[in-house]
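Objective 1.3, modelling of assemblies. Example input:
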Amino acid sequence: MRSPAARQVGLLAHRSITRTLRDPGNVAPGIVVPLLLFLIVGSGLGDATKIEGFPTDSFITFALTIPFAQGAMMTIGNTGQAITTDIEHGFINRLALTPLRGVALLAAQLAGALVVGVIQAAVFFGVGLAAGARVEAGVVGALVLFALFIVAVLGFGAFGIFIGLWTGSSPAVQAIAPLAGVFLFLSSMAFPRNLIETDWFRQVATLNPLSYLVEGMRSLLIFGWDGQALALGFLVAGVVLIVSIVASAATLRRRLVAR
Amino acid sequence: MSHSSFLSIARFVAWRDMRDLRRAPALIIPTLLLPLMFIVAFAGALSRLTSLPALQDIDYTAFQYVYALLQAAGFAGAVGGTAMIEDFQNGFMGRLMLAAPKRAAIVAGYVIAMLLRAALAVVLLTALAFALGMDVSGGPLDLLGLFALAALLNVTATLWSTGVAMHGRSPNAAPAAILPVFLLLFLTPVFLPLESLDGWLHAVASANPFTSLLEAGRALIEGQPEDVGMAFAVVGAMVVVTGLWALWGVKRAEAAGA
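Predicted structure (tokens):
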């Protein structure tokens, strides 16, 4: 027999998944926009592999990390929007009257993001492989890439929940979520860091943690097994996840006390 | 119906948009965010591409600036349609349609407003590009030509999107106002010259009318204007076609009693 806490999480997770999948607007942009950028960058920069020192002869393979990284970041908008809708409709206030624990609510809210993440990964792999990309680390490497992507989806999803709880306003989430994408553009997403000629950009990309997330994913695609790159990738995604959950839980507590 | 009333309606619509922008400057973000990201990120990350034969002796920041400029101009125009759809939703368009003796003036007002928004975006983008070290080989006339191309692209996008808004008059029409502009801008030689592309993107970019604008703009900023006349002819034709589309939209909105 399930504990009351597990039952609560199950019910809320079911609600989160149903609500997410019911509206194509929650799923489609997180698939279409990253794929579009992947196809444009991947097809438009094919000649870049002719540059001396470029780590692969397939730019499509190099660029396959773009949809994974961007798709994970777009989770911020989805989860942030969902939690602000719950705030604006009074759902969170009603939950405050029940014995539900805050962490249970947060975990359940991430269920919808998790399901969308699985769909995104399947589509990204399918389109990427059909476009000619390959995974140097093989099938196991693809599974590890999937795992890293899911940790990133949960991490950015939790960050979106934090933003939503902190601001409590849908327009604020809609304004902040795209700005988070700026950090991805300022990473080594489009080019290997060691080949970036512009000094200030290389320094920004080196300081940007998202570069290491992207490079961790990319290592499986173009190098095979690179323990350091993978460890850094999981570290970045894991830190985002843990810090965001802790910050969200604290913000949720404050919001409930304030009521 | 006198010219003065046509102009006064157009001026009022444009003034109202500028007033909204002054009250909420964040409204410029959708127009500016992606072009800013493109010029900062790609001019910074991809400058090594100039070691490729196709890009030798080319300033990559200037190369990307032209794309970001046209992108900002196009997005500003596409936003005009979504602004008009919002005005249909909040009832302002209904009142304006009743009050305006000639409704084409309303579209003209949006065209002026979106040109002003694009001009604001262009000023910010240009300042940023120079801050990033952009090297412009073209003279003042070449730059004027480049800005004229961007302005005409902005007018095309506004006429398209306001036409969609007049035809649809509901939030469901918003994607149709934005997506074609968004896609046509992306399906061009964004990162490398057209001749360096291959496969499906080369075929699509070659057939895309926006490509001739981009290539002419890049030629102008390099001070070696080639095929500029053709680019102006293409964008001129687009202005005429989208203008007819917008006028048809006005007629349909009138017929629907909007």
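Chain A has one domain: 4-258.
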